[in-house]
Amino acid sequence: MSATVTARVSTTGGPTLPQERRLVTEIPGPRSRELAARRSAAVPAGVSVTMPVFAAAAGGGVLVDVDGNSFIDLGSGIAVTSVGNSAPAVVDAVRDQVGRFTHTCFMITPYEGYVAVAEALNAITPGDHEKRSALFNSGAEAVENAVKIARSHTGRQAVAVFDHAYHGRTSLTMAMTAKNMPYKEGFGPFSPEVHRAPMSYPFLDGLDGPAAAGRAIEILDRQVGAHNLAALVIEPIQGEGGFIVPAPGFLPALRDWTRANGIVFVADEVQTGFARTGAMFACEHEDVVPDLIATAKGIAGGLPLAAVTGTAEIMDAPHAGGLGGTYGGNPIACAAALATLRTIRDDDLVGRARAIGEMLLDRLRALQATDPRIGDVRGRGAMVAVEVVDPATGGPDAATTKAIAAGAHAAGLIVLTCGSHGNVLRLLPPLAIPQPLLAEALDVLADVVATTR
Ligand code: PLZ
Is 106 a residue whose pLDDT tops 80? Predict the structure, then answer.
């Protein structure tokens, strides 16, 4: 037993990794620079990098690079490692499964893990009606399958999406994603029958939820016709688009309208799901019960897995053989998901996300009170962002946002940016981050913001 524990400390990440910020070389260090050169020669420029430090180990709230620098992780690999990197339960479950079988293809010879994940998702997603779940590999694949299922169920083709939306990089989901650069430029033609409506964006539009929903519905009614819509797909809190929390009442009004018009309401909870926002799913904050919910990212502690969960009647619409894929619901990813869901429950990560949210919002709002460049502080749970503006004009300031992110990276913090205008600094710490480490990260960030001009 103790031999295993010692081995884990010395050779892998996980929560036993020292929980500290530690900079021992310039950033990036020599070993990372060497790897970056190899990377440039071997990997296409299209696959870009936010922070050119190469990972060696990660766990709890830190990531250690190949030069021995230890960064405080405020990104979780884009909201994936919510239970922490190499979380012990996930590591054990993966080790056990990988020694039994690695793959059969669930469509050829099924296995219990897939069924158990489907049962768990059916139980924990909003609504106590009869549900089904199908498993896939990525968020984009889940969203794309949700649209296929909605089209099959309704016999309609049109899909409604929103300004600032992000749904993926495949042909259909790229059409559903709002932002041209870097996601769409040069990659057209785009899939037809995707229609965009204005999002509720309280900081910019000042509309209350029902008014913003009325604006969106009026446009969809007039430009598409409700009876032509198979699905309305929405992130209950937008991720890549800028951590936009819609005004209260916006989501419920859209939900009512879709129900009244036979439109399948699809919640894209790829980024918001699995405790991230201080609820198991972000729809719960407004008591919205979607027809279908697309999930991925936080579902399996870092292993690639995604799902569509929803009303049995809608989910069962596609013909036998109409849904699937070679790897969808891979047995190792399913084992990881079951361990992840257990950890979220046992460690009360929903409560932990709420506590992290209070800490982040308090601290960032205090910063906002002294710095006119911080136009808005928003978010729920451990999904919080700062929108950076030019105080003279009130308009977006991407250059300062980028400079703050670069300063944070140099100071040993992993932070990400987002937003249609690139002027949103977002924080997505692992829910396993120790409280003192998060407090240190906020001190460092406050210093970086104050000294970035
Ligand atoms: N839906 C709401 O946030 C993925 C994208 C990173 P995949 N977001 C991170 C990038 O630049 O590619 C995302 C999301 C929402 C769908 C997706 C797509 O999930 O697992 O990346 O396909």
Answer: yes
Ligand 1 nearest-atom number relative to CA 138: 20
Other beta carbons within 10 Å of 228: 17
How do strand 55-59 and strand 62-65 relate by DSSP bridges?
A: antiparallel
Q: Residue 19 gets which letter from DSSP?
A: -
In angstroms, what is the span from residue 450 Cα to ligand 1's centroid? 31
Q: What local confidence, expressed as pLDDT, does residue 12 receive?
A: 64
Cα(426) to centroid(ligand 1), Å: 15
Task: Give, in degrees to the nearest 5, the angle at Cα 294 between 288 and 296.
Answer: 125
Confidence class for position 4, pLDDT limits 50, 70, 90: very low
Same domain, 101 and 182: yes
Quick one: average pLDDT of 99-114? 98
Q: Which domain holds residue 139?
A: 90-346
Q: Which atom of ligand 1 is nearest to the CA of 297?
A: 20
Q: Supply the pTM of this predicted model.
A: 0.96
Which residues form ligand 1's pocket by a CB distance below 6 Å?
78, 138-140, 143, 166-169, 235, 239-240, 268, 270-271, 296
CB count in 10 Å sphere of residue 16 = 16
**The CATH number of the domain where 368 resides is what?**
3.90.1150.10
* 275/361 same-domain check: no
Q: Where are the beta strands (DSSP E) in 95-178?
A: 131-136, 158-162
Does 82 reside within a domain?
Answer: no
| Nearest protein CA to atom 3 of ligand 1, as residue | 271
From 143, 147, 240, give the residue whose CB has the most ligand 1 atoms within 8 Å, as the site to mutate: 240
Pair 360, 277: CB distance under 8 Å: no
pLDDT tens for 168-216 read 999 999 999 999 999 999 999 999 999 999 999 999 999 999 999 999 9
- For strands 292-295 and 70-73, give the pairing: unpaired
Q: Which of 138, 145, 270, when mutated, tests ligand 1's pocket best, judged by the most ligand atoms within 8 Å of its CB?
A: 270
Mean per-residue pLDDT, 112-129? 98
Residue 169 CA to ligand 1 center (angstroms) comes to 8
Residue to probe by mutation, ligand 1, list 166, 292, 418, most atoms within 8 Å of CB: 166
Q: 166: CA distance to ligand 1 center in Å?
A: 7
293 forms beta bridges with: 267, 309
pLDDT digits over 214-255, tens only?
999 999 999 999 999 999 999 999 999 999 999 999 999 999
Token pair for 225: 């016709």
Judge if 106 and 131 occupy the same domain: yes
